[in-house]
Specification:
The complex is a heterodimer of chains A (401) and B (151).
Chain A lengths: L19 E5 L3 H11 L5 E5 L2 H10 L4 E5 L7 H10 L8 E5 L5 H9 L2 E6 L4 H85 L5 H32 L4 E4 L1 H15 L6 E4 L5 E4 H18 L7 E8 L3 E8 L31 H11 L4 E6 L3 E9 L3
Parallel strand pairs in A: 1-2, 1-3, 3-4, 4-5, 7-9
Antiparallel strand pairs in A: 6-8, 9-10, 10-12, 11-12
Chain B lengths: L8 E4 L3 H13 L6 E4 L2 H9 L15 E4 L8 H10 L8 E5 L4 H9 L4 E4 L4 H18 L9
Classes of the chains: A alpha/beta (401), B alpha/beta (151).
Chain lengths: 401, 151
Amino acid sequence: MPSTPITEFDGASGPPGKVNILLVDDQPGNLLAHESILDEMGENIVKASSGREALDWLLREDFAVILLDVNMPGMDGFETAELIRGRSCLEKTPIIFITGYNTTDLDRLKGYSLGAADYIFLPVIPQVLNSKVRVFVELARQTRLIRRQTEILARNNQEQTRQLQIIQKLNQECQEANKELEGFCHTVSHDLRAPVRGIVGFSQLLVQDYGSKLDEEGKRLLGIVQSESQRMGRLVDELLHFSHLGRRTLRKSALDMTAIAKSVFEDLVARHAGRRPELELKPLPPACGDATLIRQVFINLLSNAIKFTGRREVARIEIGSQSESQRNIYYVKDNGAGFDAKHANKLFGLFERLHGQEEFEGTGVGLALVKRIIHRHGGRIWAESNVTEGTTFYFTLQNEE
Amino acid sequence: MNAVHEPEILLVEDNPNDAELALRALQKRHLANKVFHVKDGQEALDFLFGTGPYAGRDTRRHPKLMLLDLKLPKLDGLEVLRTIKADQRTKNIPVVVLTSSSQQRDIVESYHLGVNSYVVKPMEFDSFSAAVADLGCYWVLLNQAPEMQDG
């Protein structure tokens, strides 16, 4: 019979992996004989010469099976069985009665009513004893294995629950910190507006009311105060915009990307009087996203493209896409002033700029917002660029919910 | 300007600079002498209900427009709005919230409380001036308010 390796042993009197077999007989000769028959099984055999001694053992150890002699002086086998069955922890331990005389049907019934698993008659036939005991030994081994696996499962379960709790706690902390940070961002940008409005407004009043009293240098300096405070105003407004759009709940629907790109481009061109880059708009597959936010993505990418092609003789912008199974890759390509690939990591950082204020104006919020919007949609964004040929921005969006 | 006790515009604004910019904008449309400026929410309520320092004021005369900031000391703008819109005597006064806050929950709450209009203060001085002046003209000169009921 194949035996399952057991590494854990809960009996004190035997080596690990073995199960206990209890032999109960008042005659030492019988005990010895039965022991020698069962010895080849390699299990741990315990001998008791009376019912009382058997009970002592049973209370200390787990046994796979009890071989119980019916005919013993004092407490006989049936009485012993009754006492054994009286213990709730022992009520399932199998008992094989061994009896010498011709057992009547009545005795046999009595044995079975006491929970006997089987009977063996003297003289014992070694093969019969062996095969009957082996069944219970195997049963005990399997039971022990199941118990052990149940324990391991329970422990794993406990560990998983504990880890889940840790993850949930960290997640909650992270969400709270995020919320706090966004609230902070909002408050800062919000509270900064009032003083900025003051500086912008009052410097304008100064120009209006006292401009005639200032000389050229005075006017120049005041002009710097005005343009710088206006720039700060734009920064604060964009930061506020960033925090707003970043927190907005996504309202996804199927988007006609071609129509969005086209209408954004026309709006932007209308605002840049006299500048109209050549646009090649290839048909774009629809995407699933938040219309307002995806429109914002096109606004930011296309106004960048228009801005950075400002110094090209022929400004060209191309919008196109590649479809994959689950998602689409969209791109906006320009032939404008590109950037050096080694600065690419800074491209999407908040307030990061790759061009000087005098070269191209900007606040460094636009691409950070684009990245945030695309990430919130579960997409990716990246750019390829070189200084001579211009820049291509790629972003991915799911094509359905 | 604050000599008028029967103003057509009640400006509730704690920031003196914003108040001055608003008054200047109204001045250009010759509305500044019709403005009464209070600096916090409690003073606004005292003025409208003739309590505290305004005890004895004829409260049957209501302003044609109340320009209300939300972030105010003592009693904030939303509380002021809640109080006057819940009171039979003052609920018909047109209230325009003029604030730096573009937060949805402020906007939603203001409308819920019965605000007549909600305007986010533009950052640019020209836009700010234009917004305040347009509001003043619209509510004081164009808008027709219901006749006052005596008693």
